[in-house]
Amino acid sequence: MSVNPGKILPYVDYVEAMRKPLLSPAMWKWDDIENQLYSSDSDRRHLVTLGHPELEEEASAVHDLAIVIQVIKPGEKSNLHRHGPWAIHFVVRGEGYTAINDEKYHWGFGDTVLTPAWTYHEHVNTSETEDAILYTFQNSPALSRSNNLFREEPAGLPPKHVLQKDDPNQSFQPEPPVTANNDVTNWK
Ligand SMILES: [Fe+2]
After folding, report:
1. Which has the closest alpha carbon to 133: 87, 90, 62, 71?
2. The model's pTM
3. In terms of Cα–Cα distance, which of 141, 166, 18 is closest to 86?
4. Boundaries of each Cupin type-2 domain copy (predicted)?
5. pLDDT tens for residues 26-53?
6. Who wins on pLDDT, 92 or 40?
7. pLDDT at residue 139 is higher than 90
8. How much distance in Å is there from the Cα of 66 to the middle of ligand 1?
9. How far, in Å, is the centroid of ligand 1 from the Cα of 55?
10. Helix, strand, coil proportions of the chain in percent (round to 5)?
11. 51 versus 175: which is more confidently predicted?
12. For the domain bounded by 45-179, which CATH number is listed?
């Protein structure tokens, strides 16, 4: 195996390499987000991510942050899982709880919950009739860029490195949500 020689840069090149164009303002209208959340081509988890149009990484709202919006159907809960990014969840609709390390954090409209990095958690919609919607900020793009994005789902399986490209053994498919009785839910 040949040695891959590293670059040695003068200071001015280092400073120049750190210079990045400023992002333009961007806006995502709630009507568009909601339509996509409930559309047939939304992914089967009823989850969408906001991407800034000027960023190569289409799943990033700014360089280091992702915004994920997710519907949890009545009686549905996500799989118990954990991941490297922290997550800050804003509740914009419905009621339920997030269980973090076996502690239940009950939430309703306007509440904010922090899931720290690498902690087991699951989200549960306790309503029998109303959808819950969580608006989540995550530092996943920052971890992805440093090849340090890991996820364990469902809990108990070996953690997977999510974004190592071109390696079929490292691919990641999210598990479907389940009902409170642990039945896999009907997605649509
Ligand atoms: Fe999560």
Report:
1. 71
2. 0.83
3. 141
4. 69-134
5. 999 999 999 999 886 555 668 899 999 9
6. 92
7. yes
8. 13
9. 24
10. 15, 30, 55
11. 51
12. 2.60.120.10
Question: Exposed, middle or buried, 165 (CB in 10 Å: 0-12/13-18/19+)?
Answer: exposed
Most confidently modeled of 27-36, 72-81, 161-170?
Answer: 27-36
Q: Are 49 and 59 in contact (CB under 8 A)?
A: yes
Q: Separation of 144 CA from ligand 1 center, angstroms?
A: 15
Distance from the CA of 166 to the center of ligand 1, in angstroms?
24
The Cβ-side half-sphere exposure at 63, using a 13 Å CA radius, reads 7
What is the DSSP secondary-structure string of 63-121? TTBEEEEEEE-TTEEPPPBEESS-EEEEEEE--EEEEETTEEEEE-TT-EEEE-TT--E
Tell me the residue length of the chain: 188
